[in-house]
């Protein structure tokens, strides 16, 4: 799921993660492997959110999906694995993407 800037901030605050900016050199490679998503890094590794149900017609719930785990304690390399839907559910915010 690709998120707007407001949705990224809202989601990142809930999961304690940092979004990888679209202009980061790794994003094009990640998109080639995993599709067009907003990618997050946190203590567990590389994650995305997948669309869930609408809570009130304006906001959506989404599942956090882990795509790769840290390969070592220094957190300098990721080890991809089959997508793992975590138990974490977030409210991503407004359904309408913001206009930049």
Q: Mean of the pLDDT scores?
A: 88
The biggest beta sheet is recorded as: 5 strands, antiparallel
Find the count of extended strands (DSSP E, 2+ residues): 5
Give the percentage of residues in beta strands: 35-45%
Question: Structural class, judged by helices and strands?
Answer: alpha+beta
Ends: how far apart? 18 Å
Question: What is the chain-wise order of helices and strands?
Answer: HEHEEEE
- Indicate the percent of residues in helices: 10-25%
Unreliable stretches: none
Could you give the order of strands across the largest sheet?
Answer: 1-2-3-4-5
| Number of helical segments with 4 or more residues | 2
Report on this structure.
- By secondary structure, this protein is of the alpha+beta class.
- The protein is built from two helices and five strands.
- The chain has a five-stranded antiparallel beta sheet with strand order 1-2-3-4-5.
- A hairpin with a 7-residue loop joins strand 4 and strand 5 (78-94).
- The longest helix is centred in the first third of the chain and has 11 residues, at 5-15.
- It is globular and about 40 Å long.
- The chain starts with a helix and ends in a 6-residue tail after the last strand.
């Amino acid at each position: 799921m690709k998120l707007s800037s407001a949705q990224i901030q809202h989601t990142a605050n809930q999961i304690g993660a940092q979004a990888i900016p679209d202009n980061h050199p790794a994003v094009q490679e990640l998109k080639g492997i995993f599709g067009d998503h907003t990618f997050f890094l946190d203590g567990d590794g590389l994650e995305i959110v997948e669309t869930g149900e609408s809570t009130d017609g304006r906001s959506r719930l989404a599942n956090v999906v882990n795509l790769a785990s840290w390969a070592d304690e220094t957190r300098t390399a990721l080890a991809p694995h089959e997508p793992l839907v975590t138990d974490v559910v977030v409210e991503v915010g407004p359904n309408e993407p913001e206009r930049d």
